[in-house]
Specification:
- One of its GO terms (molecular function) is RNA-directed DNA polymerase activity.
- InterPro entries: RVT_2.
- This is FOG: Transposon-encoded proteins with TYA, reverse transcriptase, integrase domains in various combinations.
- It is a single chain.
- The chain is of the alpha+beta class and 220 residues long.
- The protein has a domain of 124 residues: Alpha-Beta Plaits.
- The protein is built from 6 helices and 11 strands.
- A hairpin with a 2-residue loop joins strand 9 and strand 10.
- The two termini are 14 Å apart.
């Protein structure tokens, strides 16, 4: 979220919108690693002509294994392969990856600056002029990127643009949690609970500790 905040702040400073991009089916766009070949059985429903089977010296598709040429969802290395592909495309376009914030790429040419934030298959882009951003999206069409226009939601955070600033909130996620755990009627409090406070031993035990762990994880 640091990258998203930086890009939103700079977009407001430059008085230009932050644009949202999305790459559908991103993982399958990366090539498999030649040095670590992966072989798979023929997928269910895949038909191979009898002539091809004969040329291969087999009688059915069950006797065939295939060399994977592209990455697939479910592979342990799928995320890394996609990130490497996207990072390579961006650096080929002259962008540099930030050392302190690896999700942030930037390019500076005189007074012109282009910023790109990435998170898996989502991009947040802004620059000192619209032409820079338009050219980036045009260059990334090879990845079938979708230009979703001015950002209004990114990584579960709602982004609202006002005249002088951006407002970021997660109100919808908070409401979802309240609905999920039956706390719609809970009253607000101005101060948090004391850090050393423990419930009395007579308090009822949790029916399902998983719910507590799930809630704690959602709050984090």
């Amino acid at each position: 979220m640091i990258t998203a905040k930086v890009i939103s702040a700079m977009a407001q400073h430059w008085k230009l919108p932050a644009r949202h991009g999305d790459v559908p089916n991103a993982y399958v766009k990366a090539s498999a690693e030649e040095e670590f070949p992966i072989y798979i059985k023929t997928p269910q429903g895949m038909e191979i002509r009898d002539q091809v089977l004969k040329e291969l010296g087999v009688n059915s598709t069950n006797e065939i294994i295939l060399l994977l040429l592209q990455s697939l969802y479910g592979l342990k290395q799928a995320g890394r392969l996609w990130n490497r592909l996207l990072s390579t495309k961006l650096t080929d376009l002259g962008l540099k990856q930030s050392i302190v914030e690896p999700c942030l790429f930037y390019r500076k040419d005189g007074r012109e600056i282009l910023l790109v934030g990435i998170y898996v298959d989502e991009l947040l882009v802004t620059g000192t002029n619209d032409d820079l951003v338009n050219k980036l999206f045009e260059s990334l069409k090879i990845l079938q990127i979708k230009d979703l226009g001015e950002v209004n939601k990114f990584l579960g955070t709602r982004i609202i643009k006002h005249e002088e600033d951006y407002f970021l909130d997660q109100e919808h996620l908070i409401n979802d949690l309240l609905n999920q755990y039956g706390m719609n009627d809970a009253k607000m409090t101005k101060a948090p609970i004391d850090s050393g406070h423990l419930c009395d031993e007579s308090s009822p035990k949790l029916h399902d500790p998983k719910n507590f762990r799930s809630l704690a994880g959602s709050l984090l």
